[in-house]
Amino acid sequence: MMTAQASSTPTPLNIIIHPQSLFSILDHTLRRNEGQERVIGTLLGQRSEDGTEIEIRSAFAVPHIESAAQVEIDMEYHKTMYNLYHKANPKEILVGWYATSLELNAFSALIQNFYSSVSDGTYPYPAVHLTMQVDPSSDISIRTYISTNAGVLPDKISESCLFVPVPNELRYSESERSGLELVASAKNNESRETSIIGDIGNLEKSIEEVISMVDRVSAYVASVQDGTRPGNAAIGKFLLSNLSLAPKIDSDELEKLFNSHLQDILLVVYLSNTIKTQMQLFNSLKRTAVIS
Amino acid sequence: MAFPVTVLPELTTPVYSVVIDSGVLLKLTRHTSEAFPATVCGLILGLDANSVLQLTHAFPFPPSEGSGASGNDDASAPRSKANVRYQADMIRLLKEVNIEANPVGYYISSYLGGFFNQALVDNLVALQAANPNSIVLVHDVTRSSQSSVSLKAYRLSAQFLATNKSSGGKFSSEAVVKNNLTYVDILEELPVSIKNSHLGTALLHHLDSPTFATKGDPTSFISTSALAPNFDSLDLSIDPYLEKSVEFLLESVDDYYSEQGTFNYFQRQLGREQSKIQQWIQKTRSENTLRERANLPTVSEEDWQKHFKLPTEPSRLDNLLISAQIDQYCKQIEEYSSVVSSKMFAVQNSLDIHN
After folding, report:
1. For a FRET experiment, which of A157, A173, B62, B272 has its CA 20 to 30 Å from that of A210?
2. Does Hydrolase appear among the keywords (chain A) (predicted)?
3. ipTM of this predicted complex?
4. Cβ contact B61:B86 at 8 Å
5. Torsion-angle region of residue B171: left (phi > 0), alpha (psi -120 to 50) or beta?
């Protein structure tokens, strides 16, 4: 465990990423200008009370020009955009920046120093740097770092820093989960497109998945019983404990509860149907009244 | 489902469906569900081409000051002065990073489907005047947490716009009947589909792979992949949702009756005025015959307008909106109950087998 020193700023031990920010970064990559190899932008999010956990919630792009000799970032743009974003989401603050190539060079150090600076950076907390490799030929990998000073010469201190990797994980809330699922359902389609299915369609899909899972498990159990596959005691115990979770209820009680529940629902449906019919009746009566 | 053909005045080709970018969907759902239960809105940018409306970017509007008391301020946010400035600034900045600076609609969050109000109509009329293909995306937060994401795209129908124009925003009964406008026709729905970019698809596959599983107990068999299927929709309890829907439905019916009451009051007044006018006309007619005999100037019968003023007819728009709202609640209840009753019957069957 790290011993807390009175003068040191807390360093983040864990970084949580929301999937929406990743999609924003990808979108920005797609729209980059000709000849730009990597794009950079700002990360916004929240910091936990003690500073050990940083949450990255959204990101926006910042135009920048990079050549072999120098790098230029539009800082005005960053400031104005950050103010606009902050107005809409007062809880999100600046936590770092991202780049879409995995390499860390002197330019990264310069940009990192800008983002950690006193004036409008993340001082006194360290800025998080997220790199994401979006080269289509290889796997997408996401790495997060924070920087510490590793100055060798005092006049070159602004160009050098040591990037320390920090573990990251992806997290999302319940509401985002259904959105993410919907988006993910398109990932196996040729056209990368999917439409929004209604409640019944969703129910059907879930039931089909459960049925296929049950089929797989029963096939496995049957094959173990036949002796064609070696059984695994851990899996067996796990299945047994899960199957015994079905509650034991008196069947009469259950039937009564069940029927009353069903009746409630049917009553409400009947009510809404009558209201709807009455509205339609009113409507047509009104029209005939005006015409006649 | 057949979608009505809308005839647009200028050279814009009409759109028949909406395609949403995955990033936009995630941003939208996050914004609306975080602000729950307050209603919020934001602007959508995109392109309309080839009879398909593509939504490529969206940003939320800042909450207006003093909107803590009533949620209505947020609903009219797209047209408030501060937000128009915000919108212009935002679009200008986004243009620099090659994002299309073309507003094509706005999104709102709704609580159990209650979004039919005056603000919606005003916003859409303004937006569709600028771009006839503008839409409103309604995200129902409560329903999305129960089952699949509930996102619908609407736009004002041609009949509604024609009625609006012909009656100058007053919606008299004549204009409504002439344009064949019923409460069902106020909004027309457009099918929505979701599209991922290639990189997005790659990211989704990456998230699904076992290497990305979050830290968990390695001896457990529960999949901790980020995209593990969600079986909450198989849950059997529905009472809070249904209860609230019925409550809202009954409230809207009350609103409908009170609105009906004002219209009846107007009709009674109109009747009274007209009978008074008739009496006056009779009186002048008899007076005129007397005056002719006495060779005095006659009073014209048309002069009743100088003495009586007919009450103005109230706008029928409220009535239409409330009826559409009631219809919406009924539809929701039906959809939801159909799912629940199927689940109940399925469980009942399986229970009978074991009994």
Report:
1. A173
2. yes
3. 0.76
4. yes
5. left
Question: DSSP 3-state assignment of B57?
Answer: strand
A23 shares contact with chain B (CB less than 8 Å): yes
Residues of A in contact with B97 (CB under 8 A): 28, 31, 61-63
Within 8 A of A206 by CB-CB distance, chain B residues are 229-231, 233-234
Alpha-carbon gap, residue A49 to A15, rounded angstroms: 14
User: Would you tell me which residues 173-212 of chain A have a C-beta closer than 8 angstroms to some C-beta of chain B?
Assistant: 173-184, 186-187, 191-203, 206-207, 209-210
Q: Do B33 and A173 touch (CB under 8 A)?
A: yes
Cα A26 to Cα A119: distance, rounded to the nearest angstrom: 29
- Summarised one tens digit per residue, pLDDT across range A111-155 is 777 777 755 566 667 778 888 877 766 677 778 888 766 666 666
What φ, ψ does residue A15 adopt, rounded to 5°?
-125, 130
Alpha carbon distance B20, B210 (integer Å): 28
Query: How many whole angstroms separate alpha carbon B101 and alpha carbon B90?
Result: 9
Q: Which residues of B touch A202 (CB under 8 A)?
A: 147-148, 233
d(CA B123, CA B72): 13
**What Cα–Cα distance (Å) separates residue B290 from each residue in A274, B277, B280, B294?**
60, 20, 15, 6
pTM for this predicted structure = 0.76
Interface contact flag, B98 A32, Cβ < 8 Å: yes
Q: Nearest residue on chain A to B227, judged by CA atoms? A: A181
Q: What is the pLDDT of residues A24-81, one digit of tens each?
A: 888 888 777 776 777 888 888 888 777 678 888 888 888 888 777 777 878 888 888 8
